[in-house]
């Protein structure tokens, strides 16, 4: 894997100078195009890439995650990401403003929090580690998750049920991002 030293557990910094965000699909393979002012750091234990931006936004993508950043006004400061498979852990500092994740079964929006999104063909799961996150089906009513709560938004389902996740389930998801 380019940019990753076999067996290395710590960070290996890769600075990305320029990018076109629309259509930039990231995965834990070769480092893809990013936004200016952000760096990508590949890790091997667990395998993931961490995108860190100058404004404090951090996105950890587990190995094999397919997502693209959304920068509608092309200012180099993404407002969101569209994820189609696997998982992301997102850390948005309060001073930054909002950030939105678009997944096949749900939309998660937030300001100043840490949360994870896990996408499969059958469902989109969202877990909040810190802060709160609004989750809705595309075009549907939103529910708000608080720290320690999660939700499974299943394909074809109609209702949204917020649950307090067990420490084992939360730890299992967060471990995929080295947390």
UniProtKB/TrEMBL annotation:
Keywords: Signal. This is FecR domain-containing protein. Residues 51-133 form the FecR protein domain. InterPro entries: FecR (IPR006860). Residues 1-33 form the signal peptide.
């Amino acid at each position: 894997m380019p940019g990753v030293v076999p067996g290395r557990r710590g960070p290996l910094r890769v600075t990305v100078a320029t990018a076109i965000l629309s259509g930039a699909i990231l995965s834990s393979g070769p480092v893809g195009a990013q936004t200016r002012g952000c760096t990508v750091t590949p890790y091997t234990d667990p395998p993931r890439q961490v995108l860190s931006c100058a404004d404090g936004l951090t996105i950890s993508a587990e190995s094999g995650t397919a997502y693209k950043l959304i920068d509608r006004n092309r200012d180099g400061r993404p407002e969101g990401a569209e994820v189609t498979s696997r998982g992301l852990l997102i850390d948005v500092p309060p001073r930054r403003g909002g950030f939105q994740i678009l997944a096949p079964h749900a939309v998660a929006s937030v300001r100043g929090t840490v949360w994870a999104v896990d996408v499969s063909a059958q469902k989109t799961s969202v877990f909040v580690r810190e802060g709160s996150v609004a989750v809705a089906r595309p075009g549907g009513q939103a529910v708000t998750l608080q720290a320690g709560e999660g939700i499974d938004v299943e394909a074809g389902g109609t209702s949204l049920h917020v649950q307090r996740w067990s420490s084992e389930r939360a730890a299992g998801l967060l471990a995929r991002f080295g947390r």
